[in-house]
Amino acid sequence: QLDLLWTRKQNVMYNLFDWPTQKHSKLIILAIANTMDLPERIMMNRVASRLVCPSSFFTVALLSCFVVGLWGFFCLLILAKLFSQLAGNIVAALSGDARRCLDICRRATEICEFASQKRTPEIVRMAHVTEAIDEMFSSPYINAIRNASLHEQIFLKAILAEFRRAGVEESTVQQVYHQHVALCRIEGMQSPTISEIMAICSRLGACRLLLVDSSNKYLHMRVQLNISQDDVMYALKDE
């Protein structure tokens, strides 16, 4: 799980991939990650330059092997359509998380099985896959983010930025506020006041998009996402 070794300076990953390049080294490093485009997403150039096959982290062919093993009754035609349309155009483009593709396959199978109880048995078809995709990417949480105010959406973006900066998926309101101000400056917008930020955080917590510390620590309250980062990025991808 290479993505779990990520640090801000990326020294751990750099040293790991630098060892095989040393003179007379007989070491080969094989790394896996759930993210299909991990080098492009999080690696500095000095780290990515140490990789022999940076584009082969998680290929569609490898993903196909997993699905064949888990869902052996998928026919090859459906697999070909599935991975050209889904893995290439949806999973990689939206989140890069290979597990999301497997989740969609599982849900498509459940939809097919439920439909087969009412009619004659059938195999999983692209209609089932499309229904699973629509269901997965139209949750109430995603709709809530899309209907949120502009500054609420920026606050969620600020949380993602702070998580990437710190390398952990928990932060304080104060740290997120610094990111929020920076994003407003980039967009040429007026930054909200501290009181407005606290109100934004409270509303997002009430919608259960955030998990907010219930103590009276004010700016030092700890916040976490109550949904996946992928869902947030998907909901905000057109914003």
TrEMBL record:
Organism: Pelecanoides urinatrix
SMART domains: Cdc6_C
Subunit structure: ORC is composed of six subunits.
Top-rank lineage group of the source organism: Eukaryota
Domain Cdc6 C-terminal: 156-236
Job of this protein: Component of the origin recognition complex (ORC) that binds origins of replication. DNA-binding is ATP-dependent, however specific DNA sequences that define origins of replication have not been identified so far. ORC is required to assemble the pre-replication complex necessary to initiate DNA replication.
UniProt GO BP: DNA replication initiation; mitotic DNA replication checkpoint signaling
GO molecular function: ATP binding; DNA replication origin binding; metal ion binding
Gene: Orc1
Organism lineage: Eukaryota, Metazoa, Chordata, Craniata, Vertebrata
Subcellular locations according to the entry: Nucleus
TM spans (from-to): 51-80
InterPro entries recorded: AAA_lid_10, Cdc6_C, ORC1/CDC6, P-loop_NTPase, WH-like_DNA-bd_sf, WH_DNA-bd_sf
Record-stated family: Belongs to the ORC1 family.
Predominant location category: nucleus
Name recorded for this polypeptide: Origin recognition complex subunit 1
One Pfam family named in its UniProt record: WHD_Cdc6
Alphabetical keyword list: ATP-binding, DNA replication, DNA-binding, Membrane, Metal-binding, Nucleotide-binding, Nucleus, Transmembrane, Transmembrane helix
One GO cellular component, as annotated: nuclear origin of replication recognition complex
